[in-house]
Automatic annotation (TrEMBL), chain A:
It holds the Pfam family bpX4. This is MoxR-vWA-beta-propeller ternary system domain-containing protein. Residues 3-202 form the MoxR-vWA-beta-propeller ternary system domain. Keywords: Plasmid. InterPro entries: bpX4 (IPR045549). It comes from the Bacteria. It comes from Hymenobacter yonginensis.
UniProtKB/TrEMBL annotation, chain B:
Residues 2-226 form the MoxR-vWA-beta-propeller ternary system domain. It comes from Hymenobacter yonginensis. InterPro entries: bpX2. It comes from the Bacteria. This is MoxR-vWA-beta-propeller ternary system domain-containing protein. Keywords: Plasmid. Pfam families: bpX2.
Length: 209, 233
């Protein structure tokens, strides 16, 4: 299956169907995928608070390819750890705000994939790899238990990513992240005096008796 | 032939078929009567000044005479009697009564009720929506008027300058005001609402405006931004 077709289905319907072995992609397909991601970035940026980070082609394509391969590997469970590491490589560029947001265009589906993969075979090489990636990309992994100890400084420093991350924490009611020292004051500020309405048990876990 | 002043008496023969009338020089001429035999009873009751027979040359023969004494005036404009003597509605004995009107008035109220809406400006709303937490936006709905006023509905309302509103019987009133006659609220809603989902917004001076429910949109950041863009064009 073409990467561009995979992306089109994912970004327009939110679901996709893959079968068979992991693929490699032709330049024309990658170019089409890049255009899809660029358009989606422009559309998605209208929902982001403040001014959205710009589009980073490398990060967007890397994350899309990573997700595609991860979905395939989740289907073909007999592939060993070597194949997992060969197909699911780390991002080689800098993790700038643009890279974080561009990767997130597809990495926002990582928590769902992780849930599916853990359900199929918890603790296998693919799940471990996905968890490691989720920890490296906290902006996209809200709602999972893959939480790094240190705050992502690039995300914390960028007003749009910072606010969007807090929004995601509240939307997913992610207690672990909401309790982290860097984020707790920001979550508090976002809820303001309406925490009891907007996150009913917020006070219970933030201020344990 | 009748005097012109006796026009109204023709009403009594208006129902007879085939009659025609014309007016000239202060005289009314009634035609279309049978040439032989007795005249119909209602015709005989008319205050006629003279009754003539008419020949083809327009000569007039006094009733029962064989010698003509005059000619039918030239230029008579004959009209069916129903047209010549049209019906008029009689004047009512009692004057009609106008529909009583009631001017809606609002007065300051001492009761404090939780706000259900906020009337603010598009500039303030846009500035807030640009940076507000998502959770504070998604609980709201908004509508924008042509004069860039923004109505926000939902809870909790954003901390923006503007007029707070509260709900009475489904009607939005300015905070701190109530109807002078509160019992009229359900009646007003029934009279003014064209659809159950419409929102009726009252001002402190008693004026009101209706907003269709379809014009009040769920809040997303993109919806606010696109609305502002539309206003800028």
């Amino acid at each position: 299956m073409l990467l561009s077709v995979f992306l089109h289905e994912l970004l327009t319907t939110g679901c996709t169907v893959l079968t068979g072995q992991p693929d490699s992609f032709e330049p024309a397909d990658l170019h089409a995928a890049e255009n899809l991601l660029r358009d989606y970035h422009a559309e998605d940026a209208t929902e982001l608070p403040h001014t959205a980070p710009s589009f980073n082609v490398e990060a967007a394509l890397w994350a899309a390819t990573y997700l595609y391969q991860a979905v395939k590997l989740a289907l073909v469970r007999e592939l060993d750890e070597t194949v997992v590491h060969k197909k699911l490589r780390d991002f080689s560029g800098d993790k700038t705000p643009a890279a974080i947001y561009s990767a997130d265009l597809t990495f926002r589906y990582l928590p769902d994939l992780l849930l599916i993969a853990k359900g199929l075979a918890p603790g296998d090489a693919l799940v471990v790899r996905l968890q490691a990636t989720a920890r490296q990309w906290p902006f996209s992994s809200v709602g999972t238990d893959c939480v790094g100890a240190e705050a992502d400084t690039a995300m914390l420093a960028h007003s749009a990513l910072r606010q969007a991350y807090v929004d995601r924490i509240i939307r997913a009611q992610d207690r672990v992240r909401a309790s982290q020292k860097h984020w707790a004051p920001l979550v508090h500020a976002a809820l303001g005096g309406h925490a009891a309405t907007l996150w009913p048990d917020f006070a219970a876990f933030m201020l344990p008796v | 032939m009748l005097a012109a002043t006796d026009r109204e008496t023709l009403g009594s023969v208006r129902h007879l078929p085939g009659l025609q009338a014309a007016e000239i020089a202060g005289q009314l001429w009634l035609g279309g009567l049978p040439a032989v035999g007795e005249l119909p009873l209602p015709v005989r009751g008319l205050p006629a000044e003279a009754i003539y027979g008419l020949d083809a040359e327009g000569r007039l023969f006094p009733n029962g005479q064989r010698t003509p004494t005059a000619r039918l005036p030239v230029g008579l404009a004959w009209q069916p009697l129903r047209v010549f003597v049209p019906l008029e509605l009689p004047t009512a004995a009692l004057p009609a009564q106008g529909i009583p009107s009631y001017r809606v008035r609002l007065r300051p109220s001492a009761s404090a009720v939780a706000a259900a809406g906020l009337l603010t400006t598009l500039a303030a709303w846009h500035a807030y929506a640009e940076t507000a937490p998502e959770v504070r936006l998604h609980c709201l709905r908004f509508a924008v008027a042509a004069d860039a006023r923004v109505l926000l509905l939902g809870t909790p309302l954003p901390p923006l300058p503007g007029q707070e509103l509260w709900l009475r019987e489904g009607l939005l009133l300015p905070a701190g005001f109530d109807f002078e006659a509160p019992l009229l609220a359900p009646l007003l809603r029934q009279k003014l609402q064209s659809s159950p989902d419409d929102v009726l917004l009252f001002a402190a001076d008693g004026s009101w405006e209706r907003m269709p429910n379809a014009a009040i949109l769920p809040v997303t950041r993109s919806a606010v931004r696109l609305t502002v863009e539309d206003f800028g064009r």
